[in-house]
């Protein structure tokens, strides 16, 4: 008998009432797949030359061996929506098909969940020098900027194409920064409205300002002193209440993820965010973090992930980053750390982060028995 996605979602919510009442768990744990945004200076670029989304064997390893249930799959909006037609509902069907194949391998073939990640810093039209190039979406003072309405149309189209895939999660945009915080909320709301207008009921995760850093959630950010994300983000409205906050939290000295040494205590730096989430009855996922190949980082990552598990406002995490094009380069956290891509080495020919950081700091914190394995992506 046919059961609609809406009916499945209603049944899921009913069955989870008891679980929600006693506190959420970490139900998503996984890794970022970075590659669809590569070669951003070459548009549209060539598949398997300038960009790629996943290695299927890598997905196999993480699902079958590491027992994770989440991948965050990056793509570039300028490739999905060509500059000739602009941001909106007209897609490059070749690029979309390549992206869809990757998402379907994760969600249909392997049964895991996939965050759709427009890796654009809430900017569009020039990704060549990310994170700073391109026009801020919705910036009415910039004649070259895509409008908030166009952003909503983009999300309406993308959600409509995945409306029947219950294992996708809609990640509104990667790391907005140095822009008006109220505009981020306005853009986020346009995306939420567009997604829900299609009948899509899956989980949505919304970013804040300051590269959506958890440590700075209640602080001004950027050179212009933009208002804290905490001032506005609770104003977001989702008619299905299936919305979480998207957080990034690196542990090096400047929170950038560019250093091999960790210097930041996650629990202390996330405390204000945690209180804000509790006060506003909201949940969050930490969708980017990482660390170098050293005991200090192992200890601090373990401490942060345990903190997430101990506080029921957090429902998941994904580490940065695996991906088919990293080779011997580091995806974060020092030049010699390497990436989380299985089978690769670091730049010195030694073990990469999949062989060092992952087993020492991330894998021990995967709550295998609690991870969500079926049903519509949701808060519980």
TrEMBL record:
Catalytic reactions on record: Endohydrolysis of (1->4)-beta-D-glucosidic linkages in cellulose, lichenin and cereal beta-D-glucans
Broadest EC class assigned to this enzyme: hydrolase
Keyword annotations: Glycosidase, Hydrolase, Signal
Keyword Flavoprotein: no
GO biological process terms on file: glucan catabolic process
Keyword Transcription: no
GO molecular function: cellulase activity
EC number: 3.2.1.4
Segment forming the signal sequence: 1-19
Chain ranges of the Glycoside hydrolase family domain: 32-322
One Pfam family here: Cellulase
InterPro entries registered for this protein in UniProt: GH, Glyco_hydro_5
Family per record: Belongs to the glycosyl hydrolase 5 (cellulase A) family.
Protein name in UniProt: cellulase
């Amino acid at each position: 008998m046919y059961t609609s996605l809406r009916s499945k979602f209603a049944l899921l919510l009913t069955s989870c009432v008891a679980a929600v009442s006693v506190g959420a768990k970490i139900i998503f744990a996984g890794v970022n797949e970075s590659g669809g945004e590569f070669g951003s200076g070459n548009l549209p670029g060539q598949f398997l030359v300038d960009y790629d989304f996943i290695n299927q064997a890598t997905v196999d390893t993480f699902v079958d061996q590491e027992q994770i249930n989440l991948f965050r799959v990056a793509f570039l909006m300028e490739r999905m929506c060509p500059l000739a037609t602009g941001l909106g509902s007209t897609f490059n069907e070749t690029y979309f098909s390549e992206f869809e194949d990757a998402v379907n391998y994760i969600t249909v073939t392997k049964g895991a969940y996939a965050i759709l990640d427009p890796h654009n810093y809430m900017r569009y039209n020039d990704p060549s020098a990310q994170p700073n190039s391109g026009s801020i979406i919705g910036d009415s003072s910039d004649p070259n900027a895509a409008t908030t309405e166009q952003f909503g149309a983009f999300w309406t189209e993308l959600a409509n194409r995945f409306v029947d895939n219950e294992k996708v999660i809609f990640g509104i945009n990667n790391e907005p920064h140095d822009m008006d915080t109220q505009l981020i909320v306005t853009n986020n709301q346009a995306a939420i409205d567009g997604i829900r207008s299609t009948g899509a009921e899956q989980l949505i995760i919304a970013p804040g300002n300051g590269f959506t850093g958890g440590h700075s959630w209640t602080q001004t950010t950027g050179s212009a002193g933009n208002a804290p994300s905490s001032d506005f983000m609770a104003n977001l409205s989702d008619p299905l209440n299936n919305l979480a906050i998207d957080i990034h939290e690196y542990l090096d000295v400047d929170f950038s993820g560019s250093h091999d040494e960790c210097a930041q205590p996650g629990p202390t730096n996330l405390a204000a965010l945690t209180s804000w989430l509790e006060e506003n009855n909201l949940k969050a996922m930490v969708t980017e973090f990482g660390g170098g190949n050293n005991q200090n980082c192992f200890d601090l990552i373990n401490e942060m992930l345990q903190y997430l598990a101990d506080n029921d406002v957090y429902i998941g995490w994904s580490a940065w980053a695996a991906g088919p094009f990293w080779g011997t380069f580091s995806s974060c956290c020092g030049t010699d750390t390497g990436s989380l891509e299985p089978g690769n080495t670091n730049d010195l020919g030694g073990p990469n982060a999949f062989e060092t950081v992952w087993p020492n700091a991330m894998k021990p914190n995967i709550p295998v028995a609690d991870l969500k394995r079926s049903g519509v992506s949701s808060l519980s």
